[in-house]
Amino acid sequence: MSRAPVWRAVAALAVIATSLYLALTMSPRLGLDLRGGTQLVFETKDSPTVKADAAATDRTLEVLQRRTDALGVVDPTLVRSGEKRIIVELPGVLDPRKAADVIGRTAQLSFHAVLGADDPKGLPDESGQPLRLGPAVISGDGVTDAAARTDPQRGVSWFVTVDFRESAAWQKLTGAAACEPVGDPKRRVAIVLDNKIISSPQVNEGTPCRTGMPGGSTEITGSFTPEEAQNLAVLIKGGSLPVPLEIVEQRTVGPTLGADAIAASAKAGVVGVLLTGVFIILVYRVVGLLAAIALASYGLISYAALVALGATLTLPGLAGFVLAIGMAVDANVLVFERAREEYGASPQKGLKAALDRGFKNAWSAIADSNITTLLAAGLLFWLASGPVKGFGVTLSIGVLASLVSAMLITRALTQWVIGRVPPRLSGLGSIGRVRTWLTAKNPFVMRHARRWLAVGAVIVVVAVGGLLSRGLNFGVEFTGGRLVEFTTATPMSADTARQAVATAGFPSAVVQSSDEGISVRTGQISADDVVRIQQSLGGGVDKVRDELIGPSLGEELRRNALIALGVALAAQLLYLAVRFRWTFGAAAVLALFVDTAAVVGAFAWLGKPIDGVFLAAMLTIIGYSVNDKVVVFDRVRELWTAHRKTPFPQIVNQAILQTVPRTVNTGLGALFILAALAVFGGDSLRDFAIALLIGIVVGTLTSSFVAGPLAIELERHSKQPPPEPAKRRDPRTREGSGAVV
Prior knowledge:
Blueprint: H1 4-25, E1 29-30, H2 32-35, E2 37-44, H3 54-71, E3 77-81, E4 85-91, H4 96-103, E5 110-117, E6 123-124, E7 130-139, E8 143-151, E9 156-164, H5 167-178, E10 189-193, E11 196-199, E12 217-221, H6 226-238, E13 245-253, H7 255-309, E14 312-313, H8 315-345, H9 351-383, H10 388-417, H11 423-426, H12 433-441, H13 449-469, E15 473-474, H14 476-479, E16 481-488, H15 494-503, E17 510-514, E18 517-522, H16 527-536, E19 541-549, H17 551-579, H18 582-606, E20 609-610, H19 612-642, H20 648-680, H21 682-705, H22 707-716
Parallel strand pairs: 1-14, 15-20
Antiparallel strand pairs: 2-4, 2-13, 3-4, 5-7, 5-10, 6-7, 8-9, 9-12, 10-11, 13-19, 16-18, 16-19, 17-18
Helix pairs in contact: 1-7, 1-10, 3-6, 7-8, 7-10, 7-20, 8-9, 8-10, 8-20, 9-10, 9-17, 9-19, 12-20, 13-18, 13-22, 17-18, 17-19, 18-19, 18-21, 18-22, 19-20, 19-21, 20-21, 20-22
Domain SecDF P1 head subdomain: 126-243
Family: Belongs to the SecD/SecF family. SecD subfamily. Belongs to the SecD/SecF family. SecF subfamily.
Transmembrane segments: 6-24, 270-295, 301-329, 362-384, 390-410, 452-472, 561-578, 585-606, 612-627, 664-682, 688-712
């Protein structure tokens, strides 16, 4: 007796136990769009003396790290992205003006002697008096530390301590200033940052002339508030940046919006999983119940993998997590449908043998479909930006977890139960009503192959018409600009909001109103302008989202989106051509082009935004649609190998009829999840769900009525022979008894 089922059950228990331990002992790392805060993306620029390369960016990152630490932000994240970009995440910081002003100061910090006052060409001090300064005596590199402190016993409220790397320069600077009379501007020392005097303290009366302040440290006292002292210490301690910085992207999300997004996604996930579970139980009975249990295990495994890897869970990532649950049904459906076929062909061999053959024969289609989805997820991770990267991560983890769920846990559970329940109750004892009807009718749908191609061409023409007449509504992520969303205490019409924004000085802004609040989309405006818009909208208005994308970054993201879609199609063509035949690969990719055109055209006609979340939806559609086409062509190859003399159109027709139950059941499983996302997921996830709903419906139809007819047409021009059946190895004849002396 084989021990494989026992080891499979042990492995399944080990995976579930490990996942449960990780889920209970580790917390997920939430992205800023879920927990609230500000994300700033800086790009380093060349200075007259320093080139903005990876080394300069790393040195800049160290300075930004010191400044961020001094801000007192809990759990900040700073990482270099590429050669010239630095991503700064500040949880809980909802005022981007403060963060950008303190962290992103670009000029050199320096300490100067004051040579005189009331100089028209001088720099204004804190009170506005212009001061004439001498050359820099100490640069930012000479400062080792600065801190805001308070000492009630000395009667001083707040002061700033500064520590220098070398004491000689500071002693010389203060010694020269101490020789001037008290109250004379020349007795002051100017601290300059970004060509602006941030402090100009006077050397105290007890400092000896020419001797100065020894010890390499000093205190700056004055009428500081705690915040003023803290900011001054941050700027001094942060020192100078090796190269200038430019903000190319900024995202600010309020904690309320993040909490609402988590609640909405959780609700969508629960409703979607329950609907999917009920559906699969109704269709497949006992094995469907076991598959539903495996789906719950899949969710646990995916979550545990996310927290164990330290992946950041974003809003699109949550959508990917929920969507992958629907896609995880696919492997179970493929196995169960194949087991039904095997049992129907040879019922005398029993359910266990049919189930084993179902797992064995479905593996090829399962592997191919999951690899194509991983290709799309990988492209999302490498070419997308911001929260959409999280979607690629969760989708990849979901695909791998679905394989473990279906091929290990479902298999262990079903092999334990099968044989203990009657065939009809098991869910595998009949081929199902749909397959029974198709077998009885045996319609020849490929008789009108060219008519189906004409319908596909009409879809493309309608989509192109939408692009030409309506154009695409690119979001700020692809065009550059600023998008701000506000919630209002009382409903406000779009006209009223538009008038208020125009009064604030932005008549060309795109203003939209919904039940959830007001959104304002403009060009490149400052954070102060955002405050002015908020004030013009009146009281009871709270900012919940603020996104700024620089024009250069918007162009780059738009270019990367086109590259991602192009590479996705090329990668699918290459994989399918290698795995199957070039005719199958070309037919699948041309059908994918119809799917893509249908979704893009629908968004053009509906005026829906084209942004990073839409890119995630498109790449998911490509991966999901290829799954369908892989299953169809995998069956075509199998039938053609077994029946090489049968005309190819009949082979394609038979393959389509045999895979219809799997296609319908898998599609419905995903549609339940997407419908839940569309209802509960909020505006951004609703558009994501709409794109996927359109893509999955169209992709399911094109798998049969576009990819199939295209393969028939292409095979007429192909000189490649039909696939050869796999050659079986002849058993070796053993000579002698095998005994050894």
